[in-house]
Design a protein that fits this description.
Layout (H helix, E strand, L loop, with lengths): L4 E2 L4 E7 L4 E7 L5 E5 L6 H7 L3 E6 L5 H4 L2 H8 L3 E3 L13 E2 L5 E4 L2 E7 L8 E5 L2 E5 L2 E2 L2 E2 L5 H15 L7 E4 L5 E2 H12 L17
Parallel strand pairs: 4-5, 5-6, 6-7, 11-14
Antiparallel strand pairs: 1-2, 2-3, 3-4, 8-9, 9-10, 10-11, 12-13, 14-15
Helix pairs in contact: 1-3
């Protein structure tokens, strides 16, 4: 598999899985060939094949919606790596996690560490993961808008997570969501600024776009 991104510090594989255009990611340390897998969607054969060429240190789940965990049993059976998820989202897994993803802590593979960022809103325990100028956002943030929410309270919580935890990162950061294309954090900041400049209905939730008028 050709890398989605590669430099001297990290190789990133982006693997499309399942019927919902899910993205799973494999982050590889070039020096040691150790890796971390992010999310385990349905139909993970390609993910397993690519990750199997590395030494997988852990499988990290960004949130507990079924399309991101339906392949977890297959992935863990094939790769034998411990699974981490936030405590708030852990009950939906088909098996207990091996450890919890705690805000501000790190997960290690090879010569680098992946920082854990708690971003509740899309789900109570949604988690993003950051290394250098790379940010893995699950369904918290997409190019053009936040992840889907079920209530206005959830949307408020999600926007607080995005503005307080993600948009504070450097403009040069690229983010990799759980579906679809990559995004740039500078563009996300500009788009959110437009959204914040407008008045919105108090019952706003669901699929929201930053540039919607």
């Amino acid at each position: 598999m050709s890398p989605h991104y590669q430099d001297d510090a990290i190789t990133i594989h982006k693997v499309k899985c399942g019927p919902y255009d899910n993205n799973a990611y494999i982050l590889v340390c070039p020096e040691t060939n150790e890796s971390i897998v992010i999310d385990a969607p349905e139909g993970p054969d390609g993910l397993i094949a690519a990750a199997g060429a590395t030494t997988v240190r852990s499988v990290l789940i960004t949130h507990n919606h079924s399309d991101h965990i339906q392949g977890l049993t297959e992935v863990t059976s094939a790769l034998g790596a411990p699974v981490g998820i936030s405590q708030g989202d852990a009950s939906a897994l088909p098996r207990p996690p091996d450890f919890f993803l705690q805000d501000g802590e790190s997960v290690v593979a090879g010569t680098w560490t992946l920082k854990i960022i708690s971003t509740p809103g899309h789900t109570p325990g949604s988690t993003c993961l950051s290394i250098g100028n790379h940010l893995f956002t699950g369904d918290t943030l997409f190019p053009g808008g936040p992840g889907r929410t079920g209530t206005p309270v959830d949307l408020d919580r999600l926007i607080l997570s995005i503005t307080g935890r993600l948009l504070t990162l450097a403009d040069g950061v690229t983010f990799y969501p759980g579906h679809g294309d990559d995004g740039g954090l500078k563009a996300a900041k500009d788009e959110y600024a437009f959204f914040a400049s407008k008045e919105h209905a108090p019952d706003l939730s669901g699929d929201v776009l930053w540039l919607e008028r």
